[in-house]
């Protein structure tokens, strides 16, 4: 299915965003916003310091080339963090009638830089969609990456309700959920749920560099899930982490203390209290996972049913079709395929009251159940 079709299916029939939207920066986020708005019939004008990146975004349908006589009603700054403040300042000056927002993953540093320069920020509203992919660039852009994702909007006392409605309308048009936060709260929050996880994934994946091939052949879905985001671009993350260093260091210090406690307990695993220390760590992890919002915005725990799937065309589609016949909704899916094996494992997340119906129904249809959560 095309990204245009995805956007139309997920977005409202009539766009809240009107007029011309100028997007400065045609990388992953900028181009993805362009694709989604273009699918709604919004006029999208793209600008980028890189002519090659800009042409690529236009060729893929993210918008048109910006023109000198454009009069945008909204400007979205989607550039690397180290130039975000500079571009915001320039856009505010060049387009005095436009509302300006940015999608940088750090909000406090550019705000401080702009205030220090004495820039009038009455038309600027910082924002941040909590969405993305491991690979960047216009070629990786998708219209649907914002659907169901939080979009933080940072208002202050100077923000008019009309301008706030413009930025929140943009988020809603893209299928995101607007959430108002202060820049300080935003940066502390993303340090915990985004920036430190990136470091943890990268540090863990770096241990694989010198590992024996025999060891890596044992890797399953757990290690792939844990290190998935380690494929992110180092150049971008150096900027992000540098701009949000203090909150990140605070979380890293606490995490380092937790790891040291576990390591100390495992040095003498038979010592009094050691096993309890390890168990408490795993239990707290269980509790933390349960607090993460579920598929429908709730703290909801799903059960897993692992099904063996033959490595032949059409089998996964047949599995989904038969789950539908059983009135079982697939809340999430993970696939694991071991090298050399002629089958894969499909780990399907379902609501707890659907587990027995799924297992009994699939087994009756000839599927082999490898395990369930309660096994």
From TrEMBL:
Instruction: Give all residue intervals belonging to the ACT domain.
Output: 304-375
Question: Which InterPro entries is this protein grouped with?
Answer: 6-PGluconate_DH-like_C_sf (IPR008927), ACT-like_dom_sf (IPR045865), ACT_dom (IPR002912), NAD(P)-bd_dom_sf (IPR036291), PDH_C (IPR046825), PDH_N (IPR046826), Preph/Arog_dehydrog (IPR050812), Prephen_DH (IPR003099)
| Family annotation (Pfam families) | PDH_C, PDH_N
Task: Identify the enzyme class.
Answer: oxidoreductase
Keyword Translocase listed = no
Q: What EC number(s) would the UniProt record show?
A: 1.3.1.12
Keyword terms of this UniProt record: Amino-acid biosynthesis, Aromatic amino acid biosynthesis, NAD, Oxidoreductase, Tyrosine biosynthesis
Catalysed transformations (reactions) = prephenate + NAD(+) = 3-(4-hydroxyphenyl)pyruvate + CO2 + NADH
Q: Where is the Prephenate/arogenate dehydrogenase domain?
A: 19-296
> Is Oxidoreductase among the key words of this record?
yes
Pathway(s) this gene product operates in, as recorded in its UniProt entry? Amino-acid biosynthesis; L-tyrosine biosynthesis; (4-hydroxyphenyl)pyruvate from prephenate (NAD(+) route): step 1/1
Instruction: Give the residues annotated as coiled coil.
Output: none
- What NCBIfam families does the record tag this protein with? PRK06545.2-3, PRK06545.2-4
Family named by the database record: Belongs to the prephenate/arogenate dehydrogenase family.
**What is the name listed in the Swiss-Prot or TrEMBL entry for this protein?**
Prephenate dehydrogenase
Q: Which organism is it from?
A: Microbacterium terricola
């Amino acid at each position: 299915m095309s990204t245009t079709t995805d956007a139309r299916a997920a977005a409202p029939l009539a766009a809240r965003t009107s007029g011309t939207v100028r997007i400065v920066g045609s990388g992953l986020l900028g181009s993805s916003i362009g694709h989604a708005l273009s699918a709604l019939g919004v006029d999208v004008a793209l600008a980028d310091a890189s002519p090659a990146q800009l042409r690529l975004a236009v060729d893929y349908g993210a918008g048109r080339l910006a023109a000198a006589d454009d009069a945008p009603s909204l400007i979205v700054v989607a550039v690397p963090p180290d130039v975000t403040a500079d571009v915001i300042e320039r856009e505010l000056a060049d387009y005095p009638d436009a509302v300006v927002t940015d999608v940088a993953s750090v909000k406090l540093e550019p705000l401080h830089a702009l205030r220090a320069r004495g820039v009038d920020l009455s038309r600027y509203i910082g924002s941040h969609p909590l969405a993305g992919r491991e690979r960047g660039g216009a070629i990786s852009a998708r219209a649907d990456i914002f659907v169901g994702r939080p979009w933080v909007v940072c208002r202050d006392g100077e923000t008019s309700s009309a301008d706030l409605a413009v930025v929140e309308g943009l988020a809603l048009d893209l299928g995101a959920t607007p959430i108002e936060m202060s820049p300080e709260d935003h940066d502390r929050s993303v340090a915990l749920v985004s920036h430190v996880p990136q470091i943890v994934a990268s540090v863990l994946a770096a241990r694989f560099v010198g590992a024996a091939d025999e060891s890596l052949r044992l890797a399953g879905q757990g290690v792939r899930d844990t290190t998935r985001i380690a494929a992110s671009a180092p150049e971008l993350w150096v900027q992000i982490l540098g701009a949000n260093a203090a909150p990140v260091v605070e979380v890293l210090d606490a995490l380092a203390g937790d790891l040291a406690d576990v390591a100390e307990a495992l040095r003498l695993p038979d010592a009094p209290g050691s096993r309890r220390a390890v168990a408490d760590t795993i239990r707290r992890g269980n509790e933390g996972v349960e607090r993460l919002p579920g598929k429908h915005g709730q703290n909801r725990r799903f059960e897993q049913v692992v099904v063996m799937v033959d490595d032949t065309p059409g089998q996964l589609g047949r599995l989904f079709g038969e789950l539908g016949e059983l009135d079982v909704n697939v809340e999430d899916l993970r696939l694991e395929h071991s090298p050399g094996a002629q089958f894969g494992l499909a780990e399907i997340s379902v609501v707890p009251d659907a587990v027995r119906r799924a297992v009994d129904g699939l087994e009756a249809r000839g599927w082999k159940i490898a395990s369930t959560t309660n096994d």
